[in-house]
Hints:
The complex is a heterodimer.
Chain A: E1 3-17, H1 24-29, E2 36-50, E3 54-58, H2 65-73, E4 80-85, E5 89-92, H3 105-115, H4 120-134, H5 149-162, E6 167-171, H6 179-194, E7 198-203, H7 206-212, E8 215-220, E9 223-228, H8 230-248, E10 272-280, E11 297-309, E12 313-319, E13 325-330, E14 341-351, E15 359-368, E16 375-387
Parallel strand pairs in A: 3-7, 3-8, 5-6, 6-7
Antiparallel strand pairs in A: 1-2, 1-4, 8-9, 10-11, 11-14, 12-13, 12-15, 15-16
Chain B: H1 3-12, H2 14-30, H3 37-57, H4 65-92, H5 94-99, H6 106-132, H7 144-169, H8 173-186, H9 194-198, H10 203-209, H11 213-225, E1 229-230, E2 240-241, H12 248-277, H13 280-283
Antiparallel strand pairs in B: 1-2
Helix pairs in contact in B: 2-6, 3-4, 3-6, 4-6, 4-7, 4-8, 4-11, 6-7, 7-11, 7-12, 11-12
Amino acid sequence: MAAAIEVRSVSKQFKLYHEHYTSLKERVVHYGRIPYEPFMALTEIDFDVEAGSTVGILGHNGCGKSTLLKCIAGILQPTRGEIVTRGRVAALLELGAGFNHELTGRENVFMNASILGLSKKDTALIFDEIVAFSELDKFIDMQVRHYSSGMYVRLGFAVAVNVEPDILLVDEVLAVGDEAFQRKCIERVKKFQQEGRTILFVTHAADLVRRICDRAVVLDHGKMVIDAKPGEAVRVFRESLHGGELNESDEPEEEAPLAEVEASRPEGTHRVRITNVAIDHPGLRLNRNWLLPDEAMTIRVAYHASERTDDLLFGIAFHDENGNHLFGTNTAVLGLDVPPADGDGEMSFEFHRVPLLDGTYLVTLAIQSSDEGTVYDWREQQASFEVMNPTRTSGLVSFPIDVHFGRPSIGMDLVEGTGA
Amino acid sequence: MTARERLSRIVVRRELLVGMVRNELKIKYKNSVLGFAWSLLNPLLYLVVFYVAFTIILGSSIPSFPIWLLSGLLVWNLFSTGLGAATGSVVANSGLVKKVSFPREILPLASVGSMLVHFFLQSLVLFTVLAAVRWHVAWAYIPLIPLALVALLLVTSALGILLSAVNVYLRDTSHFLELALLAWFWITPVVYPFQLVGIRGGWSTKLWLTNPVTPIVVVFQRAIYAKLTNPHPKGGGPPIQLLPHWPYWGFLAYLGWSFAFGLVVLTLAVRVFGRSEANFAEEL
């Protein structure tokens, strides 16, 4: 099947003027020496979107994803490269873009549909559907300037999805509106997919990409990092996000939403010291440095005791990137005997299954006296591991699940009238 | 995209053009009590002012001056307001240009279109006056009027498309245009007769004749005002020539110049517009 969208080595350069001269006088006075900085918003972007597929463009703010969408929508022209689209394109770049405040909802629907290339006759046919979808039947003859932003959004989305475009370009808009409407939008997008239409949408919501995309393109500082299946793309996206953060602030202490950890916790007496940490998992043998959900993992801790120590425990904790404490235990809590430490030694935490979905997880390790009164060594976020979820299941935890079907056996409490 | 492709793209989207014209009019009159009556006030006011200034104060030698004035003023109004609105159209609709993709030439064209509606309304004033005084128009020349109107739309749209693109880069274009139109009005024979200048020789007259609005104005005057001379000017003296004594095809040929001018400018305008359109979204 032919590609619905072809993006061929597209680059876009913006000129960042320090001062923008827009009058003839200024242009003449400053002719030929208007200072500007070239800014590459997009560099050599190259990908195809197959007809009928849904592709996400992932990237952090300012990575050029909206610029790319505008180029595909035909609003901006790429500086170099070529973009081919096949079929009617409806772009939802900003909710209610092109709505005129002075006109009523009804008039705007017709205008908007007309801009998207629909005839008046065809618009009249789908008008009721648009109004029903937007849930604005009471307000449709009101001037749009009296609309709330939510109403604006709903009408804009309703028009764009109901004009039956072959290609729908969506920029972050699914993130707006109340939850019920969001769900409705996503359902509509799914119906779109079933109808074999092409969707390209820009987001930084990794979860959404996983839920509705067939593929995702990750942009970072205007460059295409990867074009892959959602799981892989989300992983790379998260990596690029990290890179970006580190570049911005050289002091990693600053990015510490992990404030829940007692900041005054002493570094430890170093009577017993952690000398090395290694994380082992099956992926390493396959040359991937991330785990799949439910894979096994072993964390090895090498330590050195400067003098013989009998009374000690080993602790471990996992946090996610938002600082949520996911798991924490130690050998004392587990009721395990710890052999005395003297000189070099090694111990390991062996996890048969890591029931996590997507994410980077930080490992904190500690060696303390068994009553936790004395800290020998405490390594906050000493190591991290990453889990990549190749499935469409979303969330943090990989719950083991089986699904069965059969005759009713649990009553019908949810049916109105039969409950208490 | 070639100029021809760009133009055919507009033809395909003509429904959008019509819709935009309708909306522009709706918005303009939505919050006004007088509504469309406003657009009639303009020529009426002009009529009063020029009548007082020319006929009463200066003692102009054009008989039935209101009819003379209106038949030319309608043309001039469509040209000047259409061109003015078109020039500002892309900048005025920057919200649309930055967010939605459609043939942008439709914006200046819609501005000209909405002024065309005003033109028809203002014609009602003229028709009323003509009917009231049982004026004898030159029926033979009436078929030239639709042709002249097409030429007028062509010239106005062509210049409008060109200037709307220029205005994005040089925002004071609309201010320059206001001044230029002021001068342009006086080099167009709307308040004075064509023959006052047309019969003189010299390069300045030739230059004056190249004004693309003049043929259109003259055709309107020939068909509607219909009197070529004033045989009995006030205070005696020889008859005063008002309009050229050309045969039918003479007016047609002169109108041809407006068409030629319009087509050349249109080709240029669509090219300039097409080339600069790529940066509209960035410049706005």
